[in-house]
């Protein structure tokens, strides 16, 4: 029986097909998993889904009723999955707990540098043969303060680059990373205090109930008026409506967002001919100091290859009746 893979990008398709060769055939679909598309999986024991899959209770029940027994998510975060319902239905759920942290960290810096040095505005001008420098002045980063929220593998990689720029390092996390400490990072328990000191704030924490809207109206207000804010983790970490309010007040040198809290149903799709129904996102796009990309920070050859390899191992473990380290809901005994 073939594996059905949802939300497969064009560049990802040959990597998936090659990786699963010899294990089970895989059929790749460009549609994303949600309540409306779940019936497509009927008759498929194993499905693989992308980071933007919507795996709430209703979707999971449709999958289970159709015979699906294993969900292999090609992503690290799992805030999109109702794990309690999955376990209740006897669905095995696995994720990818690790892939190249450099992919995301380097892209976070790409966004930071782009908004700081007004790269998008400059590129748009020069395409029109407008070579003025008005409004393009950036700032040196050397000697300024980087605030890193979340200092796991990705946060550490981001910190190493900040250290290379010669920046002062502030960190916030539930546990300190000795490698970041060795680079000179000062950890702060007081998040508003860190935000008030940082010239650049980058988010690298998972989206959990306790981190949702980590940067709410008060948190954003605590930041410097000329700070740079970057989010390559999860959109729900920032209260977007509050962010729009701060931007309308003329605050922040630049904001780089690779994620958005209402991105499901938008990101990875061509909506260029559609009416934009999301007023918050539409308003966000109007600010010249904001750069929004479509959840692509992870999208390098190295990271995608590692994600696919981990997904194959997860399926192998499931077929063998093992519960590997990536399993969020343990492998249930297979009936066939």
Model description:
The protein has about 325 residues and is an alpha/beta fold. The protein has 2 domains: about 5-100 and about 300-330, Rossmann fold; about 100-290, Rossmann fold (3-Layer(aba) Sandwich), CATH 3.40.50.720. The chain is built from 12 helices and 13 strands. The chain has helices at about 15-20, 55-65, 85-90, 100-115, 120-125, 155-165, 180, 190-195, 215-220, 240-250, 280-285, 300-320; strands at about 5, 25-30, 45-50, 70-75, 90-95, 145-150, 170, 185, 200-205, 230, 255, 290, 325-330. The strands form 2 sheets. It has a 7-stranded parallel β-sheet, with helices on both faces. Helix 4 packs across helix 6. The longest helix is centred in the C-terminal third of the chain and has 19 residues, at about 300-320. The protein is globular. The termini are close together. The model has no long low-confidence stretch (mean pLDDT about 95).
């Amino acid at each position: 029986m073939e594996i059905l893979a949802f939300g497969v990008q064009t560049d990802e398709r040959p990597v998936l097909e090659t990786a699963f060769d010899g294990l089970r055939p895989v059929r790749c679909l460009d549609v994303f998993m949600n309540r409306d598309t779940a019936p497509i999986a009927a008759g498929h024991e194993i499905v693989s889904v992308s980071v933007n899959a919507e795996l709430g209770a209703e979707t999971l029940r449709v999958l289970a009723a159709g015979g699906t027994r294993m969900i292999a998510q090609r992503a690290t975060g799992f805030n999109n999955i109702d794990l309690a319902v999955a376990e209740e239905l006897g669905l095995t759920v696995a994720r990818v707990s690790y892939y190249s942290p450099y992919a995301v960290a380097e892209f976070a810096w790409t966004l930071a540098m782009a908004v700081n040095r007004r790269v998008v505005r400059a590129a748009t001008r020069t395409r029109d043969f407008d070579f003025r420098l008005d409004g393009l002045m950036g700032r040196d980063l050397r000697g300024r303060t980087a605030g890193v929220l979340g200092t796991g593998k990705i946060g550490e990689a981001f910190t190493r680059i900040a250290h290379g720029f010669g920046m002062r390092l502030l960190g916030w996390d539930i546990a300190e990373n000795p490698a970041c400490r060795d680079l000179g990072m000062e950890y702060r328990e007081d998040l508003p205090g860190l935000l008030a000191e940082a010239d650049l704030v980058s988010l690298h924490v998972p989206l959990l109930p306790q981190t949702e809207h980590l940067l709410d109206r008060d948190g954003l207000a605590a930041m410097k008026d000329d700070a740079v804010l970057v989010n390559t983790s999860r959109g729900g970490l920032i209260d977007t409506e509050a962010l729009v309010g701060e931007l309308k007040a003329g605050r922040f040198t630049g904001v780089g967002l690779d994620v958005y809290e209402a991105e499901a149903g938008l990101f990875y799709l061509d909506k260029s001919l559609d009416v934009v129904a999301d007023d918050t996102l539409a308003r966000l796009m109007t600010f010249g100091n904001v750069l929004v990309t479509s959840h692509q920070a992870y999208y390098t050859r190295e990271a995608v290859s590692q994600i696919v390899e981990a997904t194959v191992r997860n399926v192998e473990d499931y077929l063998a009746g093992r519960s590997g380290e990536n399993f969020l809901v343990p492998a249930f005994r297979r009936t066939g």
